[in-house]
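Researcher: We're teaching a course module on how sequence relates to structure. For the next exercise, students receive a sequence and then see the predicted structure as C-alpha cells, so they can try to spot secondary structure elements on their own. Here is the exercise chain.
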Amino acid sequence: MILDIVILAAGKGTRMKSNLPKVLHNIAGKSMLSHVVDTANQLACDKLHIVTGHGSKEVIKAFSHNDVNFIQQAQQLGTGHAVQQCLEYLKDDSITLILYGDVPLIKTTTLQNLLSNVSNKSMGLLTVEMQNPTGYGRIVRDEKGTVQNITEQKDANEKELAIREVNTGILAVKTEHLQEWLPKLSKDNAQGEYYLTDIIAMAVADDIEVVTQQPDKSWEVIGVNNRVQQAQLERIYQQQLSEKLMEQGVSLLDPNRFDCRGELSCGNDVVIDINCIFEGTNQLGNGVVIGPNCTIKNATIADNTCVHANSVIEDTIVGSDCLIGPFARLRPGTVLKNSAKIGNFVETKKALIGQGSKINHLSYIGDAQLGEDVNVGAGTITCNYDGVNKHQTTIGDNVFVGSNSSLVAPLTIGSGATIGAGSTVNKNVDDNALTLTRSPQKTIKTWKRPVKITQ
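Model: And here is the predicted structure for the students to work with:
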C-alpha cells in the first residue's frame, strides 16, 4: 500500500487568543501538530504533506528537521480547498489519509482500521456519536443505513440537525478518486467554502461505498479551538498515561495531580507523590521515591533513591541509594554516585559527586569533581567563574570541608584534607593537610554599643 498523509494545519485559531499558530500549542509538552506527525509516522507513510496558512513560517521552522512536504494554502477557503492544493503532490496509485493538526490524540490503531476499509470500490470515513452535535456535520443515511452525504450544521434542516452521528473530518480514500472529485467542489453553501465533506455524496453517486468507523474513545477525535478544550485534552492525555503507569506497578498518590511531558519509564515499586512534573526523557529505577512538587527533566535515577519535596533535577544521572532534597536543585551535568546525599537548598552544576559523599545544605557546587566520602559543610561554594571563564575544582576522597568555605577555582584539594570553617581557599591543598584562612578573633572588652540619639 502506498500511503500519502495530508495534515491540515492552516487555520488561524482565533479563539485561542494567541499570536502562536494554533497547531503549535502544546499538549503534554509537545505541540498538537507534533502529536499528529508522530502518529502519522507510525503508519509508515510514503510521504507526509502539511498544509500551512496562518503562521506558516513558524510551522515550517518548527518542523524543518522532519521529512515533510509543506504546501501553502494562501487563502483559507475551506477544507476541500486545502486538500485541492495537495493534488499535484499525491501519487496516482496511493491512498490518501486526511488528518488535522488540531486533533492531537487520534490513535494509530484507529487509523490503521480506517485504512483497511479503503479499496477501489470503497473509502473510509471516521464518525462519532455525540450527545450534543452542535457545530458538526451530520452523517445522513438512507433507510438501509447507507451513508448518502454529510450536511454541515449551517446547511442542515430540522431533521438533519437531530442526527447525532457526526463527521470527524478524518477520512481515507484512493487518491485517484480525490483527483476526480475535488475539482468538482462548489462553494455554493452557507459558509461560501469548498467543503471536503461534499466528496461523500460524489462517492455515493459513483457507487463507491462509504464505510464508516468510530474510534474506541470519543476523545481521540476532539479538536482544539480554545484554551478550555486544550486544557481538557491535556487532562485526558495525562489520565491515559497515569493509568498506563499504574497498570505497570507505579504508585501515583494522586493521578489527577501528575504531569508527564515526555517519556517516563519506571522500575518496580516506584512511588510518585502529588504535583510532580516529568519533562523530556526520564528513567526511574526500582524502589525510587519522588516526593511532592518535584520537577524532573531528562534524568536517570537508579534504584532506591529518594527525592524529597520541591526538588528540581535536570540532565542529571543519579546512582542508587541516594538522598536528594528537599529544595535541592541539580542542574545539567550533575552526576551522583551511589549513596551520595544532596540536602536542602543545595545547587549543583556540572558536578561529579562521589560515592557516599554529602553536601547537606545551603551550598553551591559547580564545575567540580568530588571523590568518595567527602563531607561539604553548610554555606560552602565553589567559586568557579572569574567573570569570563569557568574553572574546575577537584576534591579527593575523605575530604572534610568546613561550613561557610569558599573554594576558589582552579583548585585541587588532596585526599583526606580538612578545610576549616570560614576559609577562603585559593591554593592547592596537600593530602591529609589542615587548611585555615580565618582572621584571628579579637574581643574588645571596652567596646560600648551605640545608643540612639534622641532630639
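Model: If you want an answer key for the exercise: The CA atoms of residues 382 and 407 lie 5 Å apart. The helical segments are 32-42, 56-62, 79-84, 108-115, 158-161, 175-181, 199-205, 227-247.
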